[in-house]
Every structure is written in C-alpha cells, then in structure tokens.
Amino acid sequence: MVTVDAEDRLHQALLDAFDVFVVLLPDATVRTGDGYRVITVPSFPIPLTNAVWSNGTNEDATLRDLPSALGEVEAAGMPPALIGREGVDARVLEAAGGLGLTSAERIPGMTVQRDAFRPPDARPDVEVRLVGSDAALLETALDVTARGFEAPRELLEPLFATGMQANGLAIWLAYVDGVPVSTATGLLRDGAVGIFTVATPPEQRRKGYGAVITARAVEHGFAAGASWAFLQSSDLGFPVYAALGFDTVSTYIVHTRPTVA
Q1: Please, are residues 105 and 257 in contact by the beta-carbon 8 Å criterion?
Q2: Which ranges constitute the DSSP H helices of 76-179?
Q3: Which residues contact 200 (CB under 8 A, 6 or more apart)?
Q4: Could you give the residue ranges of the DSSP H alpha helices within 23-108?
Q5: 67, 182, 225, 257 — which has fewest CB within 10 A?
Q6: In degrees rounded to 5, what are phi and psi of residue 105?
Q7: Domain boundaries in the chain?
Q8: Would you say the C-alpha torsion 20, 22, 28, 30 has a positive or negative sign?
Q9: For residues 254 and 182, what is the distance between their CA atoms, to the nearest angstrom?
C-alpha cells in the first residue's frame, strides 16, 4: 500500500534533484510560489524543466496564480507546461484544459527500498565505467543519451556542456566489446539516490543493458549510504524498473499544448 508519506517523500526528492540539475545551467530560473514552483530553462527546452509544478499544498493559491505562473514560462520563450500528481493536484490538473494545455502525459514516480532491490544476474560481458570528469567519456555519454532518447544532440548539449559536475552526481556508461550500449545518471542526496537519463540506443535494447546500468547507479548510491532509490519512468523503462523491485508510488501528469502539425 502506498502511503502519503512515501508519495510526498518522493515528490520532495524529485524537486531537490531538479534543483541540482537546473543550477548547472546559467539561464535557469526557479521561483517558489504558494503551493507551486515555476521552473524555466530555455537552453534545455523540455516540459519538465519549463513548467509550473504544483506541490499539492495550496490548491486555491495555485489556481489563483496559475495563469500568471504559466505566463512566466511563456515570457521565457518556452511553451508552458503544468505538472501535478494524480489524486493530489486534482483541481489544478482539471484547470489545465481551460488554459489550453489539453495534451497529457502520465509519468510513473517509482521507489525501491534497499532491502527490496533485486539486481539482475551478473553480466561479465558488460563493462560499466564511471564517467567522472573524463571529457571523452562525457562526450560518449551525450551521444548514447541522445540516441537512446532518439532526440537531437543539440537538445542535450547544454546540460552535458556543464560537465555534469555536482556533489553526489555520477554518470555511468556500459560497454560490450568496447561499444557503448547504455548510460544512466545517479544523484545521491539526503539518504536517497535518484536515477536519471537512463538511455539505451534502439539497436541495443532488449538485451538487459538498461537493467545493468540502472542497477550499478542504484548500488553505488546504496554503498554511499542511501537507504532508498527513486526515478520517473518512461513506458519503455517501466518493466525494467519493476523487475528491479521499484514500485509506483505516484503518477505525475504533464499537461502541455497540443503540437501543431
């Protein structure tokens, strides 16, 4: 059974993690309102980093400020997004349609406790390397991430250009026969390890590499003192994370404007 405490703990951990990533980018702004947060990062144009995040603490105030808060995102030159939790931010999410944000994406928020984690079987054929400050490995991680998300390199370059150097942050690369096949990022904060940017290029999928790289990032966090791990899952990654012991404790709804063909 999912508890409110578990859901709120995940939510706060995600917000703290986003704070770490966005401050790496010089054009990032974060403003905290009453019951919500406004994030804009024009150099990293994805909905999660150019949005109003509802915190579920004051829906009345969030609803009152929502049009102007979304206007802040637009003023930064970004299409606005609204992000809330299913069952927590119901009224705020219902207001999205009236503000033109009629497209919705569901993102499971998942966690696993250390004693419930189920790592995959050992894979001696897979070599996992820590990127650290190695410029060549960082460039490879950028390439694998872009191909894994099937996104333009230019979209991710601003983040990787920062060197991805932050306290508790570790980027991992998996290789098979010298070929990079998967990557993931772990972020250790306040007794938890967050897992981000798990990416495997299409030609390397369904071979277990995503599970191996995710497990390495999780186990590294546990070895450093984390007692639980968390992530937001794509549809593709969900069965991988479930097999590792992750459970869904919250579902995030991302409302955006429909894409004009």
Answers
A1: no
A2: 90-94, 135-149, 153-160
A3: 144, 148, 181, 182, 183, 209, 210, 213
A4: 59-75, 90-94
A5: 225
A6: -125, 135
A7: 4-109+252-256, 118-244
A8: negative
A9: 26
Q: b or e along 28-62 (b: 16 or more beta carbons within 10 Å of the residue's beta carbon)? A: bebeebebbbbbbbbebbebbbbbbbbbbeebeeb
d(CA 56, CA 79): 23
Length of the chain: 261
Distances (CA, A) of 206 to 129, 149, 236: 21, 15, 10
Query: Alpha carbon of 99 to those of 39, 94, 125, 147, 256: distances in Å?
Result: 18, 10, 51, 34, 10
Q: Note down pLDDT in tens along the chain; length 261 residues.
A: 445 689 999 999 999 998 899 889 999 999 999 999 999 999 999 999 999 999 999 999 999 999 999 999 999 999 999 999 999 999 999 999 999 999 999 999 999 999 999 999 999 999 999 999 999 999 999 999 999 999 999 999 999 998 898 999 999 999 999 999 999 999 999 999 999 999 999 999 999 999 999 999 999 999 999 999 999 999 999 999 999 999 999 999 999 999 765
- Phi/psi at 112 (nearest 5 deg)? -150, 135
Strands 103-113 and 127-130: unpaired
Name which of 176, 182, 170, 179 is nearest 145 in CA terms: 182
Q: Greatest CA span in the chain, whole angstroms?
A: 57
Q: Which two tokens stand for residue 113?
A: 């406790």
Helices (H), 114-208: 135-149, 153-160
Q: What is the CATH code for 118-244?
A: 3.40.630.30
What's the sign of the alpha-carbon dihedral 121, 122, 127, 133? positive
